[in-house]
Amino acid sequence: xxxxxxxxxxxxxxxxxxxxxxxxxxxxxxxxxxxxxxxxxxxxxxxxxxxxxxxxxxxxxxxxxxxxxxxxxxxxxxxxxxxxxxxxxxxxxxxxxxxxxxxxxxxxxxxxxxxxxxxxxxxxxxxxxxxxxxxxxxxxxxxxxxxxxxxxxxxxxxxxxxxxxxxxxxxxxxxxxxxxxxxxxxxxxxxxxxxxxxxxxxxxxxxxxxxxxxxxxxxxxxxxxxxxxxxxxxxxxxxxxxxxxxxxxxxxxxxxxxxxxxxxxxxxxxxxxxxxxxxxxxxxxxxxxxxxxxxxxxxxxxxxxxxxxxxxxxxxxxxxxxxxxxxxxxxxxxxxxxxxxxxxxxxxxxxxxxxxxxxxxxxxxxxxxxxxxxxxxxxxxxxxxxxxxxxxxxxxxxxxxxxxxxxxxxxxxxxxxxxxxxxxxxxxxxxxxxxxxxxxxxxxxxxxxxxxxxxxxxxxxxxxxxxxxxxxxxxxxxxxxxxxxxxxxxxxxxxxxxxxxxxxxxxxxxxxxxxxxxxxxxxxxxxxxxxxxxxxxxxxxxxxxxxxxxxxxxxxxxxxxxxxxxxxxxxxxxxxxxxxxxxxxxxxxxxxxxxxxxxxxxxxxxxxxxxxxxxxxxxxxxxxxxxxxxxxxxxxxxxxxxxxxxxxxxxxxxxxxxxxxxxxxxxxxxxxxxxxxxxxxxxxxxxxxxxxxxxxxxxxxxxxxxxxxxxxxxxxxxxxxxxxxxxxxxxxxxxxxxxxxxxxxxxxxxxxxxxxxxxxxxxxxxxxxxxxxxxxxxxxxxxxxxxxxxxxxxxxxxxxxxxxxxxxxxxxxxxxxxxxxxxxxxxxxxxxxxxxxxxxxxxxxxxxxxxxxxxxxxxxxxxxxxxxxxxxxxxxxxxxxxxxxxxxxxxx
Length: 892
Known about the structure:
This protein is mainly α. The chain is 64% helix and 6% strand. The chain has 38 helices and eight strands. It has an eight-stranded parallel β-barrel with strand order 1-2-3-4-5-6-7-8, surrounded by nine helices. Helix 6 (120-128) packs across helix 26, helix 20 (521-535) packs parallel to helix 23 and helix 27 packs across helix 32.
């Protein structure tokens, strides 16, 4: 099977365009070398052993000066393929399910809900009350420079504009050919635009030279909101409005924005010593500056547009009879927005602002805009009110005057250390040594005690001071700009109560909501018990006012016990949390700490939401959008609209559609599968004393830790084994050598044992009828399809000493067992047999990834052979990292 013809034409067109650029920019010799390598790689993939040997030798013999541009050529091509594929799926999915996954169109989703028996009133109320928050996070896997991301976004925009202007897909190959045959004349504007952008990419430095600061990462997130989401938001909300009017007879309420945005960039200090209280303050000010600047532009345009003289009495009284009332009142808003922007500029320069009136929050600005809206509607100009003015109101409801609210996150032991220092200083003993009961007794006594807990002259370590200064900073910044306070590695109720006390201790009268994060297998199993004991504390129950948010971690749980066991414990924890919150009449919001890869909870968003336990999504959802997935989902305005619409449709369906609980025999089967899977996973990762040594040699894990691709260190602490390595680089490294181990290890052993014991028919039934199990198996199957045994063997042969190679052989045997067992459960003849479009796409990429893997192995061999590698050698390695990430379509 081949790629769909329109996509195939666009891929070939981009390839031809890149070839012409290689000739003009780098010379014919490079072009010929790239073509030689490409031809050998394709023949090798078809089983030509001679071609495979020649390919390996050719790349191994390349001098570094030639290896770099060859790697860049293949890496760039794979990124261009991604852009073409995304564009194809985006536009094809508007007409049919071309991508093989649910479209998530609100018009269709709402219609299906009405047809299933949901009343128009139920649907309208559910949409109006929807609360989805997407939390942008920066993790150390975004290997591409922001400059390059912006250039690739420009290429995507050219392809999108082609669709909008011509309505055609797949004409790029013929247009590039025609333009080339005519020597570039007569010029084709689209081809010329692509030539400009791709040429600029080729001649740009793609290596990140300096490690980004947390503020740099936050700026990158804000740029996505400014340049993409700001534009996409009104289009998305109008689609929801139209779908509601069609199916319920009522539109979306004016002040409703079902999706809002949060951020960890500049607030996540868990294991990141570079995030200081001053960092968070700076990031919040940047967000306020951007919001003021964007809304100032909108108000300027509104003043031009709203020249009407007719208004209601409320507005007439407000503007004292001005001839153009809307322009008059908007002039007031314009002045205060200017003052707000100027105030943030002054504060960012560490200067003292004047006392000019500004917007401290969104309330006054929102009331002014709503006054204009009511007035226009009352004087018969609703059509005018529903234009730019409505868009501005809805943007304000989504972004506020801060663009995002920044979450704070810190590891639980840091709070324990802070309180321990206080109790020791006060002569009360060591809080850290107390048992849970004594800790709670102390915390609950102090949280209601009116006297100050922390003396003015309290001496403390730098680490404790940082914790206390963070709480003092949060008091000053306030909840308008800050989101929730997340506690990593929550173990006991005292971990949550400790943060409540520390907020009170610094005098914060409007404290943040505290969110426990349960991450490891043991912590997930204990989550229900921890929350039940917490809700049994009268003080805490009164504090939360009937609402609780709980975060569950996909990355560390999978690193701890493997993907299958982690998935099951995540599912069970959600079920238990839903029941406990119901018992206490508390509205629960689950915060899903998902990543881009399957090993970190990634996968098609619509399927992920639909496969959650019944009752776990009740009109509210919070989820992280991490690293490269931000660019994938919000890289262009059209993609952002689709992403937002998919989230809306999937969440409302999960809220309103009653899904049955899994059968007892299904649960029993999966319980055993998870147990066996976890045992086998840990027997490899924990029990084999030489596994860590093998891992660091067979993958580029050590080298990845030296890349300037994130402000946060790759390890929570120096030294140690897998337990000290963060989940993201752990997965990133296995993705690079194509073994993809974290996503499947343990799964095959569990499935095969069940098959051997006669459980095949039951698992097939679970696969067909239980969305959770079906999606879990499908995603693991996809990862196994992406894995490549030949590549893994090549890494071992060239980078691993003979005495450690049996570990790799055993792992590859386990992968083959996993593949065989998966096929028996799914009934497919080949991996991804149920998703042929994805299989075809992967097969088309492999010949272009193979040379990059071969080059990476050779570059790693050379890097490890010297203590002072040539910088060109290092740059070539970085390019291979980019290329493999592009080919796999994910990193960590």
